[in-house]
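Researcher: Structure prediction, please.
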Amino acid sequence: AEGLPLPEDGSLLFFLNHEEDWPAPLGADGPEHARVVYVPAGTETEVASPPPGHDEEGFFHQDIPFLAPEFELSASVAPVLPPWIEER
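Model: Predicted structure follows.
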């Protein structure tokens, strides 16, 4: 989506501490339980194994694996007008 501050290449890695994934006040640095890390294209990486005791399906939720597979991310921009414009 044009105008969004997303990198043109590379990968975004999403991390979530599901045990802390509940509404909480955000600090100046964002939520403590989640992070997004940008990895530039061409950076050598490796896939980590789940920590001991976290490798079975259903550790947190029976239908959600601890490590999710890679998938493509896309975005789009849609105009939304404020309700007061329709009143005119």
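Model: Helices lie at 83-86.
Researcher: Thanks, that helps.
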